[in-house]
Amino acid sequence: MAGRVGVRALIVLAYVIIFAPMVTVAIISFFDQEIVSVPPEALTLKWYVNAWAQRDFARGFVTSLQIASIATLIGVPLGTLAALGLARSSFRGKEAVNTFLLAPLAVPAIVAGSALYLYYVMAENVLDMDIKGTLGGLIAANVLLTIPWTVRLVSASLAGLDRSAEEAAANLGARPFTVFRRITLPMMRPGIVAAALFSFVASFENLELNLLLVGPGRVTLPVAMLSYLEFRMDPTLAAVATVQIALIAAMMLITDRFVKLSRVV
Amino acid sequence: MPAATLVVPACLLVTALLVGPMVYLGRISLNHYDASSMMTEALTLENYVRAVADPYYRGVMATTLTMALVCTTTTLILGFPVAYWIARMQSSWKSLVTVMTLMPLLVGNVVRVAGWVGLLGNQGFVNAGLQGVGLIDEPIRILYTPFAVALGTVAVVLPYMILTLASVIEAIPRNVEEAAANLGAPPATVFSRVVWPLALPGVAAGCTLVFILCMNTFATAVLLGGSQFKMMAPAVYDQFSKGSNWPFGAALAFILLIATLTLTVLGSVLIARRSRRRVAA
């Protein structure tokens, strides 16, 4: 019995550790006084207004939104094709290709970010054009992030797929492209939707990969938050953080209504 | 057109944006640097030698390794019960609990760090609470300590461990446990002789993933550890952002990468050998 209580306590402790910082940041964002102290003097929504008025956060939000959406639009189709190629063929070194495509998540983001930084500087000298700090340079780095998420999630959805429906359609005279469009693609949809969600958010929230690649006037939201936090933590920053938590939770719950995330991921 | 060609575009992209830069980083790490002439082309291992010999960077590496080991162990101890609980859950809550566990994976580290500062700071929730109930008179220092970094890191990596373990435990047939229990094994024995050995591949996978993430802690280390506390990832970043000693930064980056890979491979091999022996016995 004592063991069972201990196990329950560990479960509760685990979730407290996971959620405590997120709950705290949400509570602080409603505190009236500028210097965070407990208990609050009064509650207010003014920091949300203030957060949007801070040009750095508003701009960062827009920049991150641009980068994450375009990177997702490029990376998810590429990753989906690759997952399809891996699932529908058998060639030597297939396992290696799979591992290779997941590598961008295995290489530490700060190492990959430093490497891309030097690479961009070199390419700038060779090509005589700006790359570092440009939208294109940032998007390229973030596409790299979307590939492993997509390959992993779409592969998982393809693994449990019954091929007899495809064979039936082909036997009934459907052309390969029709089979793909009418049978394969709809069956892959849960994996693709989950991949798009994870790619987008992973890119939007990424700090380390983008840290050295941002430039003046083009800073992503997490980088803007980091430089702010190095000096102070106040309710304005808490408001920015809370908006992100709320958006991510909402996106996940909406996605979950259409595809059961607990089954695809 | 064979289906295998579909992997080509993604492979080209990873080659251009990951392999290329990594090779270039490796090349840079072999260059020579001095303050007057900056970087000059060379083929030398002096940057690696310096990184390994310098007591400061040895300390940074020791901190990073200790932190990663402590956090991985803590995460395993906390994550296993949760994973077991989720894996064996049969009610309709299961998918909600899974999505709730998944959600924090997508929340950025900076967002979470902001929460920890509010919780652990001198005027934060924890100190205010302890003062409120009269346990302490003066705020105690929690923020800007290694403990704060460990706590913040565990919070980041726990969901990875839970989800990895849960998927493996789910595949362990329930009736194996029931059989052991019916034959008179107490719960602790069912765990140590049945569940744990069968879950070992998941433990290996979870610990590997979590260890890699811990070795590369960045935002949590920078913002919760304070100015005296240094881990490898921030040290690498400093070389590129503050200093201009690219060769040394590149060497540090490779040392971090190699140390992480070596230890994860070693760990997996050890666990795999252990699990084979268990199954044989």
UniProtKB/TrEMBL annotation, chain A:
Q: Which residues cross the membrane?
A: 12-31, 65-87, 99-122, 134-154, 191-215, 235-254
| Entry-linked InterPro entries | MetI-like, MetI-like_sf
Task: Kindly list the biological process annotations in GO that this record carries.
Answer: transmembrane transport
* Protein family: Belongs to the binding-protein-dependent transport system permease family.
Q: Gene Ontology terms, cellular component aspect?
A: plasma membrane
Keywords recorded for this protein, A-Z: Cell inner membrane, Cell membrane, Membrane, Transmembrane, Transmembrane helix, Transport
User: Looking at the keywords, is Hydrolase present?
Assistant: no
Q: Where does this protein come from, organism-wise?
A: Enterovirga rhinocerotis
**Stretches assigned to the ABC transmembrane type-1 domain:** 61-255
Location comes to: Cell inner membrane; Cell membrane
Q: How does it sit in the membrane?
A: Multi-pass membrane protein
Supply the name of the protein: Putative spermidine/putrescine transport system permease protein
From TrEMBL, chain B:
**Does the record carry Phosphoprotein as a key word?**
no
Kindly give the PROSITE patterns that the UniProt entry links to this protein.
ABC_TM1
Question: Where does this one sit in the cell?
Answer: Cell membrane
Entry-linked Gene3D superfamilies: MetI-like
Topology in membrane: Multi-pass membrane protein
Gene Ontology BP terms: transmembrane transport
- Where does the chain cross the membrane? 65-87, 99-122, 142-166, 203-226, 246-272
Task: Show the GO cellular component annotation of the record.
Answer: plasma membrane
Q: What is its main location?
A: membrane
Highest rank taxon of the organism: Bacteria
- Domain called ABC transmembrane type-1: residue spans: 61-267
Q: What keywords would UniProt list here?
A: Cell membrane, Membrane, Transmembrane, Transmembrane helix, Transport
Question: Is Membrane given among the entry's keywords?
Answer: yes
Indicate the family of this protein: Belongs to the binding-protein-dependent transport system permease family. CysTW subfamily.
Checking PANTHER family in the record gives:
ABC TRANSPORTER PERMEASE PROTEIN, INNER MEMBRANE ABC TRANSPORTER PERMEASE PROTEIN YDCU-RELATED-RELATED
Q: What is this protein called?
A: Putative spermidine/putrescine transport system permease protein
Q: Which organism is it from?
A: Enterovirga rhinocerotis
